[in-house]
Amino acid sequence: MKTNYIISTIYCVFVLSFSTISIAATLTVDQSGSSAYLTIQSAINDTVAGDAVKILPGLYEEAVVLDKSIKLSGSGPNFTIISPPSEGDDRNGISIYAPNVVVENITITGAKYGIYLNSTNKSYVIQRCVISGCEDDGIRIANTPSYLLLQNNTIFSNGGDGISINNYANAQIRGNIITKNKKFGIHNYASDDLSYNCFYRNQSGNYSKSEAGDSDIEADPKFINEETSNLILASDSPCINKGVIGLLYNDPDGSRNDMGAYAGQEASSFWPYYSNGPIVTDLNIIPSSIPKGGKISIKATGHVQNNK
Length: 308
What we know:
Elements: H1 2-19, E1 26-29, H2 40-45, E2 52-55, E3 58-60, E4 64-66, E5 71-73, E6 80-82, E7 94-96, E8 101-104, E9 107-109, E10 115-117, E11 123-127, E12 130-132, E13 139-141, E14 147-151, E15 154-156, E16 163-165, E17 171-174, E18 177-179, E19 184-188, E20 192-195, E21 198-200, E22 205-208, E23 217-218, E24 223-225, E25 230-233, E26 279-286, E27 297-303
Parallel strand pairs: 1-2, 2-5, 3-6, 4-7, 5-8, 6-9, 7-10, 8-11, 9-12, 10-13, 11-14, 12-15, 13-16, 14-17, 15-18, 16-19, 17-20, 18-21, 19-22, 21-23
Antiparallel strand pairs: 24-25, 26-27
């Protein structure tokens, strides 16, 4: 009887513990209609804390509000573009009001603020994004987070500051290209930690109430074609192999991290420097297992990069 009692108790505890496990979901946004979500906002609205939203290639004409603690990932800044409607009260590309948010692999253009963050005391990561052609600041931090990492972004030709931070010390700002913004490259009302960034021709100056890091450079980043918004680095760019040091940050070809949005190991699905052939981004094999002599269907999705 004692043995049976112990086994029953362990079984009940196991079932109770297992039933409380929450598995994070990834919701996919696809304008082709092959997923449940056609818009970014509709997917965000269906998430819970800890989920992820994956945005497939396309031009998304919406002002995104992030009020959930999630990871928002595009398919690469050369493929996923957010451009809000030209009219309306809320015209920020992405407005963040929730704690513990990651935004990555997206281009934002034509907004008021590219990314507007107004939340306190939590963690935020913005990485591998292109923010250009916005009316005001590229990135506006309006409150005081406990941790902020801005890494490997390209912030170009915005109407205000490239990055504006309200009274927050020790923001980690590294590996970014911040150039040709109408006001300052970076305007911080406290101190910050700058490293491995490129600043160039920001009209009011590259720094306001901030100081250059020892590893920052001031040089023309040499994009392939600014006029066509192709902000991929040309082969003679001084930003190549000048980004964050460390194996964790190396580019998909194994070389040192570049500055700007097209850099780092996680850029492998949109790495723009292959010279030949398509880049396969998705591969489906149906069915997943078959008997000998059976037939399978293979569907591949990819793209060819245009570096002109």
